[in-house]
Amino acid sequence: MRALLVSMMMALVAVLSGCGYNSIQARDEQVKASWSEVLNQYQRRADLVPNLVATVKAYAKQEQDVLTRVTEARAQVGSIRATPELLADPQAFARFEAAQGQLSSSLSRLLVVSENYPQLKSDANFRDLQAQLEGTENRIAVARNRYIKAVQDYNVSVRSFPNNLTAKVFGYQEKPNFSVTNEAELAKPPRVDFAAPSVAASGVAN
Question: Is there a domain that residue 88 lies in?
Answer without folding.
Answer: yes
